[in-house]
């Protein structure tokens, strides 16, 4: 039988929000791999830990950079493709010996997930199964008790790395928004929300569904936010 690369979404952070299918596949895979920030074990591995069977080979792929330098820096542009090439080769080596590999990814693999870059490299010649996960934004708006869209509201997902003027333009052209990749971009995001007259509606959620998570009105937020945070701007206001 052909071996399979299972790209597994592990959900927003709470281990109980891992899907039944994801848990089954992780437990049955002889090799489990995940990405991690330098010096950290990895959030996806923490979420899935209870389902990794004893004796499983584990592969930890450590990013050369995450937020240390801008994404358009020459070092970043050179290092990340090489990192994904090497990670894909390591997975392919196991697949070529007939072993299934479960590649873990926080949230949903195809929503800003690093696993999609392994998919791009291996899909042409390997069997791949993608197991969706609950995206971080769903965990965050549930924790914040904030209905995000109503009726025919249009929802826009924005990376906080966009220029402020572009954030403002897109915020003015939508009913509801989720702003990802917050971190050090928080002051710029706050300014864009204020300019778009949306600051009173916006909420910052830090580490949604994880231990120590918090929900803060954007108007009261500090000047910086942790990596695992996002901003919610709910749509239509009031009762129907």
Topology:
Blueprint: E1 4-9, H1 20-28, E2 31-36, H2 43-48, E3 57-62, H3 74-96, E4 101-105, H4 115-122, E5 127-131, H5 136-143, E6 155-159, H6 164-172, E7 176-180, H7 186-195, E8 203-206, E9 214-217, E10 229-233
Parallel strand pairs: 1-4, 1-5, 2-3, 2-4, 6-7
Antiparallel strand pairs: 7-10, 8-9, 8-10
Helix pairs in contact: 3-4, 6-7
Mean model confidence by pLDDT: 93
Q: In DSSP terms, counting alpha (H) and pi (I) runs of 4 or more, how many helices?
A: 7
The SS-based structural class is: alpha/beta
Global geometry? globular
Please tell me about this protein's structure.
The chain has 240 residues and is an alpha/beta fold. The chain contains seven helices and ten strands. α6 (164-172) crosses α7 (186-195). The chain has helices at 20-28, 43-48, 74-96, 115-122, 136-143, 164-172, 186-195, and strands at 4-9, 31-36, 57-62, 101-105, 127-131, 155-159, 176-180, 203-206, 214-217, 229-233. The strands form two sheets. The chain has a five-stranded parallel sheet, sandwiched between helices. Strands 6-7-10-8-9 form a five-stranded mixed sheet, sandwiched between helices.
Can you tag this structure with a few keywords?
alpha/beta; 240 residues; 5-stranded parallel beta sheet; 5-stranded mixed beta sheet; 7 helices; 30% helix
Summarize the structure.
With 240 residues, the protein is an alpha/beta fold.
């Amino acid at each position: 039988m052909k071996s399979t690369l299972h790209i597994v979404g592990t959900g927003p952070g709470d281990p109980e929000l891992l899907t039944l299918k994801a848990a089954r596949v992780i437990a049955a895979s002889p090799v489990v791999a995940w990405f991690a920030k330098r010096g950290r074990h990895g959030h996806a591995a923490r979420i899935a830990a209870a389902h990794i069977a004893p004796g499983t080979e584990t592969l930890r792929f450590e990013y050369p950079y995450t937020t240390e330098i801008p994404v358009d820096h020459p070092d970043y542009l050179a290092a990340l493709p090489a990192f994904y090439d090497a990670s894909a080769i390591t997975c392919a080596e196991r697949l070529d010996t007939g072993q299934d590999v479960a590649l873990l990814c926080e949230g949903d693999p195809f929503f800003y997930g690093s696993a999609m870059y392994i998919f791009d490299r291996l899909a042409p010649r390997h069997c791949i199964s993608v197991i969706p996960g609950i995206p971080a934004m769903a965990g965050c708006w549930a924790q914040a008790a904030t209905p995000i869209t109503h009726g025919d509201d249009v929802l826009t997902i924005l990376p906080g790395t966009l220029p402020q003027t572009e954030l403002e333009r897109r915020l003015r052209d939508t009913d509801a928004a989720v702003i990802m990749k917050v971190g050090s971009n928080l002051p710029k995001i706050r300014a864009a929300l204020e300019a778009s007259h949306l600051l009173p509606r916006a909420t910052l959620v830090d580490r949604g569904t994880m231990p120590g998570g918090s929900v803060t009105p954007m108007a009261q937020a500090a000047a910086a936010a942790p990596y695992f945070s996002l901003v919610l701007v709910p749509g239509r206001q009031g009762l129907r």
